[in-house]
Amino acid sequence: MDNNVCQVYEDEIRALEEEIKLLTEKYEDIQQESTFFSEEEILKSIKSFRRETWGESKGHESPSDLKAQLESLETDLSFLMKLTGFQFTSHSKKTVEKTRDRTVQKHRLSGNCHSLSFQLEFQLLETQSKEKVSSVITDLNIIMESGEDSGVSKFVSSVEEHGDLVTFFRSLSTYAEWYEHRRRTFLHFK
C-alpha cells in the first residue's frame, strides 16, 4: 500500500513539474513579447485602454444591453457555424520576431468542417510602411485526414505552396459538405 501512495505522490509531483514548466514557458513568451515595446508605447496603450473602458463604463451601455449584444453575437456565430460548417477548436499565437516595421507570428489553428478535421500551422509576416500594413502567410502546413482521395492531397499541396488560406477555407467548406452527403448516402445503402 505504501508503494501505491508513493506512486500517486510521484505522479502528482511530475504533473506539477510539467505544469510549472508550461507556465514558465508561457511567462517567458509574454516577457519576450513585452520587451519589444518601449515604455512610451506601453504607457500609450494603457492610457488608450483606460479611455476605452472608462468611456464604456460611464453608462453608455447598461448590463442588459451588453447581455443582449452578447446573445446577438452568439446567435450570429451559431448561424455562421451552421452556414459554413466550420467549428474551430483551438488557436494559439506566438510572436517570433518583432521590430518597428516587421512582425512575425506563428499561428496554430485546428477545427472541423462538417465531419472533416484539419490543423493549420503558418507564420504571418506583417510589414509596416508609412502608407500601409501588408500581411503575407509563409510556411503554411495543413494536416487533414484525406483518406484515399488523392485530389485532396494535391489540393492541400497546392494551397501550402501558394499560402492561400482563403481558397483553402472556401474549398474545404464545399468539399466537406459534399463529403458528408456522400458518406450519408453510402451509409443508407449499407
From TrEMBL:
GO biological process per UniProt: CENP-A containing chromatin assembly
Full protein name: CENPP protein
Sections of the chain in a coiled coil: 6-33
Gene: Cenpp
Keyword Coiled coil among record annotations: yes
UniProt keyword annotations, A-Z: Coiled coil
Highest taxon of source: Eukaryota
InterPro entries: CENP-P (IPR027801)
Pfam families named among the record's database cross-references: CENP-P (PF13096)
Cellular component terms per the entry's GO annotation: chromosome, centromeric region; nucleus
Keyword presence, Coiled coil: yes
Organism of derivation: Cephalopterus ornatus (Amazonian umbrellabird)
